[in-house]
Automatic annotation (TrEMBL):
Keywords: ATP-binding, Nucleotide-binding. SMART domains: AAA. Pfam families: ABC_tran. Signal peptide: none annotated. GO terms for molecular function: ATP binding; ATP hydrolysis activity. Transmembrane segments: none annotated. This is ABC transporter ATP-binding protein. Residues 8-237 form the ABC transporter domain.
Amino acid sequence: MADPQFSIQAEKLSKHFGHFTAVNEITFNVVKGEIFGFLGANGAGKTTAMRMLCGLSKPSSGKALIAGFDVYKNTEDIKRNIGYMSQKFSLYEDLTVLENIRFYGGIYGLSNEQLKNKSEQLITRLGLQQEAKKLVSSLPLGWKQKLSFSVAVLHEPQIVFLDEPTGGVDPVTRRQFWNLIYEASARGITIFVTTHYMDEAEYCNRISIMVDGKIEALDTPANLKQRFNVPSMDDVFYQLARGAQRTDN
């Protein structure tokens, strides 16, 4: 049953590929408007879990509600109520900045008037007035990432899923990108973000850490550092990974 305080509810959610278990009975809730970090090493199951939550991949077992919609029965409703930004740049390089905004706005179902107003607002907010009619391929990577995020929340979705959104950009641009995340969260949009930058975990309200398909820790960054008696999230992650290796051996 959907709980109105949560944007995401997952219970024993699993995904199997033959005999391989990519996601192993993960259970967690994400509060509306929360910035929720989903951490783990490459191969830990983060992207597979995110694809299930976005309605892009059917779970093998378990339950999940996204914005109140069932991941088995209501995948189209889920897609209409979320935004998504993949770790690979997701806009069209051979279209202009303005054409990309209008194209995706149309997909999201915005009216012509909404498209006009939101396009102008977005371009002004990002300071892209001089670049609006230039091809996206001409923009630096950091600007592409910020534009991609802004387009993902153009329709004011209930949740936006970000898969490694700051990979490959410089620290200053990463910080600017996180300012956009804070602004979206302040408007009530729930942020679900995967990252391998442990310092970015500090920017989240809560984080979960996946190891070998399982959630091994879930709490605020401060509480996790206190629990493991370490000064940084890098140390928390290292201890969890080392503990998993000992278990495997």
